Amino acid sequence: MSQVPAPEGARRFPLRSREEILAKARELADFIAQSEEVRFYQLAEQKIKANGRVSSLIAEIKRKQKEAVNAEHLGKKVYLEQVEAEIRALEAELDAIPIVQEFKAAQTEVNDLLQLITTTIANAVTDRIIEDTGGDVLSGQSGRLPPDDVAALEAALRERDRIG
């Protein structure tokens, strides 16, 4: 990791390697895996797997989906429509089971958490870029790196590429 001078009034920032960033991402993933949302999802998933009716319906849906693919491949439109209607009915029956509803809610909670984290990281990176270039975060306008800072950054990147 090397230091690059920051514009006047901005913070100095170290250059991070892709490996360092991915290591931190894995740490964050471990942290997220211990969240209430993920634990609830895991519990709901175990309940789903232990429920014989749910397993039976899922197997039947998969079987019908294969039938639908074959019917479509063979050009049997009427039969395809019949099989698709059966799939919709099976899916409706599956969706009416409370544990399936719990599982889907848990999935949504985990997905929402991941989306929130993604948005937070993206916004923080954007703000940091604006701040480090002497820009205005409120207007969303980045500034410009002074020529000396650009030269230092380019030199640091060349050194990283030479070493890496």
From TrEMBL:
One Pfam match: Com_YlbF
Which InterPro entries does this one have?
Bact_com_dev_regulator, Com_YlbF, YheA/YmcA-like_dom_sf
List where the protein spans the membrane: none
Q: Which residues form the signal peptide?
A: none
Specify the superkingdom: Bacteria
User: What is this protein's name?
Assistant: YmcA protein
